[in-house]
Amino acid sequence: MPQPKRLSSKGFNLVWSNTWGNDGDTPNAWFTQVIAISDLPITGLVEIWVDGKKVTYDPAGNNNTAFGYSIPDYENSGPNLYVKFYNGKQTAADPALYTYAQSIERPWGADRIGYGVAYAVVHARATRNMFSGFPAVTFVVDGIPLYDPSKDSTVVGGSGPQRYSDPSTWGGDGDRLPAVQTYNIMRGLRFGTRWVYGVQGLTTARLPVQNWITAINECRKVIVSVSGDGTQYRSGGEISVDQPVNATVENLLTACQGSLSEIGGVYRLFVGEPGTPTISFTDDDILSTDGQTFTPFYGLADTINGINGTYPEPANGWVTQTAPPYLRPDLEAKDGNRRLLADVSFDLVPYAEQVQRLMKSALLAALRARRHTIVLPPSFWPYAVPGEVIQWTSVRNGYANKWFVIDGAVDRGNLDVMVDITEVDPSDYDWDSETEFHPPVDGAVGPVVPQPQPIIDWFIEPYTLLDNASNSRRPAIRMVWDNSPGGLVGVIGVQWEVRDAETFVVVYRGNTLRADVGSVIIAQNLLPNNAYGVRGQLVPSDPDRLMEWSDWLPVTTPNVRLTDMDIYLPGVVEGVKELVNDATAWIRDGTRQTILEAQRISRLQADEDFGKFLARQQLRTEMVLTNGSITASYLNAITIATGPNSALALRLEDLEVYVDTTVATAIDSLQVQIDEQGDALASAITSLSAASNTGDVATANFRMTLNAGPSGYAARIGAEARAGGAGSFKAAAWYLDVPSSPSQPTRFLVVAEQFVVANQADLGNVSNPLVFQSGVLSLNVANIGTVNGQITFAGAGSANVGLTKAYSYPPFIMLKSSIGVVPGHPNLWATINVNSFVVTISTGSPTR
Fold first, then answer.
1. 520, pLDDT greater than 90
2. Which among 24, 280, 412, 748 is least buried, having the fewest CB atoms inside 10 angstroms?
3. Is the pLDDT of residue 162 over 50?
4. Residue 755 pairs with which residues in a beta bridge?
5. Could you state, in order of their start, the residue ranges of all structural domains in the chain?
6. Residue 230: per-residue pLDDT
7. Which fold has domain 459-561?
8. Peptide bond between residue 95 and the one before it cis (omega within 30 degrees of 0)
9. For 727, left (φ over 0), alpha (ψ -120 to 50), or beta?
10. Which of 132, 116, 110 is nearest to 38 (CA)?
11. For residues 672 and 649, what is the distance between their CA atoms, to the nearest angstrom?
């Protein structure tokens, strides 16, 4: 039936269920239910309630996945509840069911489509503090589209595009009107050509369309209402197909204060307040030859003076709720101070104001006790239709144009007609929404789920980090929150995220376990004078407890940039000098001494030559070829030895050639050793040497050494090329050094008269190199964002000038000093030609 339709997953509507999937190491982490909503296609899904609470449902949002819509209310460290809805017009099975959720014990094949059945698939993950059991889901839907004859231009009194022969044209506001719903049940509900529910075989002629359109328009009539859309009569709900049709029709008639009459197999519907009388008569028109009966009032057993009503309340999860009773103390006094209440169930009326309006009109109509049975002549026969209203003026009874509704009619053989009539009054249906409507009291009994805890008094401000001399050194952000003990129960920390205000990219995430401190300062990944957004969240001791992120608060960091205090050249220079001297001796003399020691060990023969080593083995290959003053030799020696808590392994390969005084050698040595103190040592050397008879010598050494042990650790790699003669040598070298002292920096050192970095693409025509030569760094092109430094003038009147202003006139950059310190020059300007990198110092105003 039309929206709102209430349907729970409990009972026969649960078609299939299964557990499946893993959550980490937890098996069967997901529980899936397939819930049939309607045995006919419906218009759509409007609301979802879980365990008695309405949840967020927006299928047009970004949470619509292959498993359906992820309910945001149940998201915590990822989705925990999915709902996927099918309106009954689907042509394929749900892929998640036959791909993931099915099992051998409980299969779901790709052929289980459910043609014509509107259903929902619910996937719930087993999560602590999320569900107390299997979730009970209630769906509020926009129900089946119905045929509305008042919207059909092909019938008398109708106007619109709907056609009974074309169900695709059905649907509209009539779906919510009890008159339209009753009409469709009387004609029978079908899926295609198959009957599903309702009356079967009732022809159109037996439902006079003009009468039904009048009833439909009476339901559709707009009245003043403070709580709804103003439609006079609406209804909707779940109709079970095993419910008797007459019971369903009675519930719909209750929703519109209606009556259904049948004469000769023809059904007419009358809704709401009585219509205009179709005929008038007087006492003279009544046949006195037939008996008459009159009931002026009801007996005590049939008397009522108040009414109770129950109805489904949407605000409380569609549970049945009692409406405020409609009481008449004045009538109770007349009935001997008795409160005589009638109980009415408005099962298909989920509208509080409409229920109260129906209760009032039902009581007032029930108080109209005057009932007559009379016989009228044949001329009244066409008007003797149950449900129609007639007007009676009676001197005998004191009636003046009094209205009566025909409750029943019996035809006589001579065409006389006997009618049962009861007094009616249109004023019984009057309603003042502003004064008579009593809004329902919210007595929700659904589960109370703790709301996510927000972080209170979250505040962000820019902050500057100072050094010991109170100099500004780094931009930072200070974050503050409420750290009162009452707000930190079950809280172990605070976490935050910092994002760039322009790109929304998160540049830093962090946390502190000292939530009680109430503030923290961060400087990681922050740029000066940059706009950021920062949000924070409390960290609970229970990981399943929900916490709410704060809003993104804007902040701009202070414009604190690097200065000359961030450059430590004096200390660097001394350290580099010391390293150069040490590394040079290490790769020259150290290489020579290490090779001599390896050669000595390789030539040892007797055990006593190995000193503390108790055992040894040696593999040796040696060749020598001599011809006068010409010699060529080759040595390959492998030696291993062990001693108390010590071991040695050495391989030496030595190639030498001599022609008179011209010599060339190539030596390769590998050595590993553990001494008695537990120090592990490793060394690799490749050394090349060439000397001419004129005294010129060239050497190339590559050496790697490292050690690790109780005394510490160290590692060094070096390469040197050296050549010269007659006491004049030139060398170039580089070194990688990891010192044994943790307080000393690691270094990559280059020793050369000229250091050049060039682009691979420019090798044929190097145009933009980086060159370091004679203590001067030269750049052909430089892109520099921030420059912090000083200009130093040498000679008489020299001084350091801090730069405070800058102007750009490509290809020149003009920088102004903060004070004039050179005698006679109060305003100094440094002009830099970025093409030639020439700096010119001048006075006065800058010129282009």
1. yes
2. 24
3. yes
4. 772
5. 5-142, 149-270, 459-561, 569-752, 783-843
6. 86
7. Immunoglobulin-like (2.60.40)
8. no
9. left
10. 116
11. 5
